[in-house]
Design a protein that fits this description.
It contains ten helices and six strands; from the N terminus they run ββαβαββαααβααααα. It is an alpha+beta fold and 221 residues long. Strands 1, 2, 3, 4, 5 and 6 form a six-stranded mixed beta sheet that branches. 36% of the residues are buried.
């Protein structure tokens, strides 16, 4: 087991941990994996905004889940090896945006696991406006990081295709929700806000692609 100083736990004030959460964190062995993430359940008393947020962000990690290797984790309930985060100082300088790190981990041949013993409950604290601003910022960072990995023509193509992300993301959310009875019950009210929240991400992602093009044009030589 990695020592406490060699690991970093990431969470948020929106997630309330289970009573055994700290013990579960300490029991995680990061010797064979770069990160471990847990499950996130929605607050039973969530309003329409809270349900829409949960469906967009956390449906993939809602219980029940089996312990397994995964491509992505929710950093709102996760544990990382410190050194593997610090090795990527170029993206760490812009803050901790987990998709960028997860992509690097996979490129390095590192593995992540979903561990259902790490359990939290999502209790939303955002207003609709605050959450849309957060989604826009995350989408922009995703688009910028992804765009910089492509040529200028590739970035332009990503920018042109960005509007197609809206129906694609909505269909994925709907598909995930329909697979679990506990999530299907949240669609009735949560669906009202989902298009606006997804649109905020798509707008940010498109701006990220556009920014990556500007960066390339401004580069010397």
């Amino acid at each position: 087991m990695a020592a406490r100083g060699e690991r970093i736990c990431t969470t948020t004030a929106h997630c309330v941990p289970s009573t055994d959460w700290v013990d579960a964190l300490l029991a995680v062995d990061l010797g064979q994996t770069v990160a471990a993430g847990g499950t996130i359940e929605n607050d039973a008393n969530a309003d329409a905004i809270g349900r829409a947020i949960f469906l967009q962000r956390y449906a993939t990690f809602s219980p029940p889940q089996a312990k397994r290797e995964v491509y992505d984790l929710a950093a709102d309930n996760a544990l990382y090896r410190r050194l593997d985060l610090q090795r990527h100082s170029d993206i760490l300088q812009r803050g901790f945006w987990e998709p960028s790190f997860h992509k690097r981990f996979h490129a390095d041949g590192l593995h992540m696991v979903l561990d259902p013993s790490l359990r939290v409950v999502h209790r939303n604290r955002y207003s609709a406006r605050q959450y849309m601003q957060q989604r826009f910022a995350h989408g922009r960072e995703f688009g910028l990081t992804r765009g910089l990995a492509y040529s200028v023509s590739g970035r332009l193509l990503l920018l042109l295709l960005a509007p197609a992300v809206l129906p694609l993301m909505l269909s994925r959310i709907l598909w995930r929700a329909l697979r679990k009875p506990a999530l299907r019950t949240q669609l009735a009210t949560g669906w009202f806000w989902l298009p606006a929240f997804v649109l905020a991400w798509v707008a940010g992602e498109a701006l990220g692609y556009q920014t990556s093009i500007w960066i390339q044009k401004a580069a010397p030589g």
